[in-house]
Design goal:
heterodimer; A: about 240 residues; alpha/beta; Rossmann fold; seven-stranded parallel sheet; two-stranded antiparallel ribbon; 9 helices; 9 strands; B: 2-enoyl-CoA Hydratase, Chain A, domain 1; about 15% strand
Chain lengths: ~240, ~575
């Protein structure tokens, strides 16, 4: 498995013959989201004051997170990832493995692996595209047998998180951009490729591929899928 | 086959014929009638099902999707009615037991059983019969008897597999209704489940046929010491070698015969003797019979599809009583006040009071031969000559939309696939003639049951209607689309290849007719995508058809339900 950050640059174009299946993660393959992941890091911060401070702060800000997510996913991501400021890189990497075993593994939807296996049998490269942080999703990506992980990357200075994500943040329209870039560099045909997501905020990601599919869709995405005759799956 | 006076007298008490379970004709009991029975029967068989519309003839009732139309047809129109329902066997359980104990071409079922053996019971899915049968479904009755026999013989390793091929998985409620609560609760979900044609570990390939056709079978069935196939035969297309070879197989094997060329080479797939489709399934079936032990239990049912309060649907309009006319008007009025979804709900809750007319068991071919004989006895209607124009009243249901929507592709398959092919080699409509169908042709699809149909209709059919092009360009893409595979395996959707099969099924009709007119189509685009004309009313459709075929064009109206098969004599 390789991890592709959004720093990926266009190299020599290849003939577009391959196909890929691009999967959003949160809500599509697993029931948890970025807030759960941060909550886990906060709860395991290492010191009592740290745990209390970060946990209480997270709980207090949940309404704000919800509102920002509703208004604009990009603003939400930028604001939310500031919470990571000061956490050490080595601790986050270690905790990510524990987070997967303790939380994420049990939150994988029961039919998610089947869907991924079906895509692989259809000859697709399996690519996970998520607004979550790469180190958080790497164990999951390995577990699901994905070929690639395209995720947000936290900026670390002196081994400590700055709370800033290396731009551009993977969300909304940018997911479509990185998918297009990925296809160009890997010789993959967008028209032959599939995209799976649960949220209308990933509308751009769905429209850029030839085979969009709504998975466990929210109300807005379900309406869109009905309008555009996209298949609707339930992997829960 | 055992025979003898002692046995014969027992059979007569049961209403059991010498060959399996052919019921005694009702008239046979009315001894002392004025005319010889044979003369009366012959007269009835030859004449009773054809009525020529006259000036004083009543208007005809026909389905218009989830509504009825009551239409005056032009004088001279030939109305073709089905045969009346055959009498059922008097004791279904006795008939089943008799068939199991007196099979054709195999030892009795009890003699095939050994303690500790592995048995798979495969069942036809609920695409048959239509409308669905009132409970207890005959599959339930057969399973109860067979399972009891298996238990008594020390056979505990038993699985029940629904032979749904690429059809949608049945829901748990549908599965429960099919075999009854007791069996369902004992076997579901671990030992009573739907066949999965896309399970990479669930299919075994046997040797190929002489024509290099793939022979693939459900692994559980293939690894069993005995397969017991429980079939319901509604039309002669089904049963026989088609049961295991089609119901328990995968896409790769189905491609051998579910393709445009095989369909074009099949004059009618309701006439197995001349059907290329059946020749292919027969080759596949022979490989299965060579490698696996299959005990077939086939059943035939009569055509008693409706009873009160819609019993008038089983009558000729000439025989309507005042009360029937009142019920029809009340039903029409009620339907006119309901939204379509509610009407659909009403119709899908009508269950048919079929009678079982025969139970046959044993090896594939001798068993199926008897089934076909009985099937034609009920469904085959002799008709003299073809017609220039044929009218089909399109019902609300097809084998592929039980508890769902008759979407445009299914309207097509009903008209040009099933109803057109319900003949014995010679279509009712002349070459280059006109088919008129009555249906709103609404652009509605069920995204849960017919997900791939939606893309097929909107993306593929708008590009081409050529079945060969569609097959080469798109079929495999749809069949391997992971979203559609997932919906088939984990949801309740038809397989990605299925909309293609629906289009191929109409291939003969499309090649044969000169024009199709959708009377009452509520939009322009659905008929246009199908390549049909549309009119608002049936009268306009008949006018247009006469304009196309000439003023003296002959017209036939196929009076369904119940369904029947025309035996056109030229």
């Amino acid at each position: 498995m390789k991890t592709h950050g959004h720093e990926m640059r266009v190299s020599e174009p290849k003939p577009l013959t391959g196909k890929a299946a691009f999967f959003d993660i949160d809500g599509t393959l697993i029931s948890t989201n970025v807030v759960h992941a941060y909550g886990y890091y906060a709860m395991n911060e290492g010191s009592v004051t740290g745990i209390l401070g970060r946990s209480l702060s997270t709980i207090a800000q949940i309404p704000l997170f919800g509102a920002l997510n509703f208004v604009d996913r990009k603003i939400f991501n930028e604001y939310f990832y500031r919470q990571y400021e000061g956490l050490t890189e080595d601790r986050l990497l270690t905790l990510a493995e524990d987070l997967f075993e303790d939380v994420i593994k049990g939150a994988i939807f029961s039919k998610a692996q089947d869907l991924i296996d079906e895509a692989r049998r259809a000859g697709c490269r399996i690519v996970l595209v998520t607004g979550a942080l790469d180190f958080t999703m790497r164990p999951l990506s390995r577990h699901l047998g994905a070929d690639e992980l395209i995720a947000n990357r936290m900026q670390f200075v002196g081994g400590k998180a700055t709370g800033k994500v290396i731009p551009p943040i993977i969300e909304g329209a940018n997911k479509a951009n990185v998918i297009r870039e990925y296809c160009e560099t890997q010789g993959i045909s967008l028209m032959k490729s599939f995209a799976y997501t649960d949220s209308a905020s990933d509308y751009a990601m769905l429209t850029i591929v030839g085979r969009p599919t709504a998975v466990n869709p929210d109300f807005r995405l379900r309406s869109l899928a009905r309008s555009y005759n996209w298949p609707i799956l339930d992997v829960r | 086959m055992l025979a003898g006076n002692r046995l014969r007298s027992t059979h007569e008490e049961l209403g059991v014929g010498e060959f399996g379970l052919i019921p005694r004709p009702r008239a046979a009991r009315t001894s002392g009638s004025m005319r010889p029975l044979k003369t009366l029967k012959k007269l009835y068989d030859e004449e009773s099902h054809i009525v020529i519309q006259e000036k004083g003839s009543p208007p005809r009732v026909m389905f218009y999707g989830e509504d009825f139309w009551v239409e005056d047809l032009p004088v001279g129109t030939r109305i073709i009615f089905p045969r009346p329902p055959l009498e059922g066997v008097p004791n279904v359980k006795a008939a089943i037991r008799y068939a199991l104990n007196h099979p054709d071409g195999m030892d009795p079922l009890h003699a095939l059983l050994k303690p500790g053996m592995k048995v798979t019971i495969a069942l036809d899915d609920i695409s048959l019969p239509l409308p669905p049968m009132k409970t207890p479904d005959v599959r339930q009755t057969i399973c109860e008897i067979v399972l009891e026999l298996l238990a008594d013989s020390g056979v505990d390793d038993v699985h029940l597999v629904i032979a749904n091929a690429l059809h949608r998985r049945l829901t748990e409620a549908e599965m429960k209704r099919m075999v009854g609560e007791k069996i369902h609760d004992s076997f579901y979900p671990d030992r009573y489940y739907n066949h999965d044609a896309e399970d990479p570990d669930g299919i075994v390939e046997l040797e190929r046929t002489s024509q290099n056709e793939v022979v693939a079978v459900n692994r559980r069935a293939a690894e069993s010491d005995l397969i017991i196939y429980v079939n319901i035969n509604l039309v002669p297309m089904d049963g026989g070698h088609k049961s295991v070879g089609t119901g328990l197989t995968n896409y790769e094997s189905l491609r051998a015969h579910h393709n445009p060329q095989t369909i074009r080479d099949t004059p009618s797939y309701m006439e197995p003797r001349t059907s290329q489709l059946h020749k292919s399934t027969e080759r596949i079936g022979k490989v299965i019979d060579k490698n696996l032990k299959v005990f077939h239990i086939e059943t035939t049912i009569n055509n008693r599809m409706f009873e009160e309060p819609v019993g008038f649907l089983m009558k000729k309009e000439e025989d309507f009583t005042e009360f029937d006319r009142l019920k029809l008007q009340a039903f029409k009025y009620g339907l006119s006040k309901m939204p379509r979804a509610a009407k659909r709900k009403v119709f899908h809750n009508i269950f048919a009071p079929y009678d079982v007319t025969g139970v046959f068991a044993g090896a594939t071919e001798p068993t199926h031969e008897k089934t076909l004989e009985m099937s034609w006895k009920q469904y085959s209607v002799p008709v003299q000559g073809q017609s220039d124009i044929v009218i089909f009243g399109m019902p609300y249901v097809s084998p592929y939309n039980v508890n769902s929507i008759l979407n445009p592709l299914l309207v097509q398959v009903m008209a040009l696939g099933y109803l057109f092919n319900l003949n014995r080699g010679v279509p009712l409509v002349k070459k280059g003639g006109v088919i008129i169908l009555t249906h709103p042709c609404y652009d509605e699809f069920d995204p849960d049951h017919h997900a791939p149909y939606i893309e097929f209709f909107n993306r593929c059919l708008t590009e081409t209607r050529d079945a060969h092009v569609l097959s080469h360009k798109y079929e495999r893409e749809f069949a391997k689309n992971p979203s559609y595979v997932h919906l088939y395996r984990k949801g309740n959707s038809y397989h990605g290849a299925h909309p293609f099969y629906m289009w191929y099924w109409g291939e003969n009709g499309r090649q044969h007719v000169g024009k199709v007119i959708a009377a009452g189509a509520e939009n322009n685009h659905v008929p246009a995508i199908m390549g049909w004309d549309r009119t608002d009313t049936l009268s306009e459709a008949i006018e247009e058809a006469r304009g196309f075929m000439g003023r003296s064009a002959s017209i036939s109206f196929v009076h369904i339900p119940p369904i029947f098969q025309t035996d056109v004599r030229l």
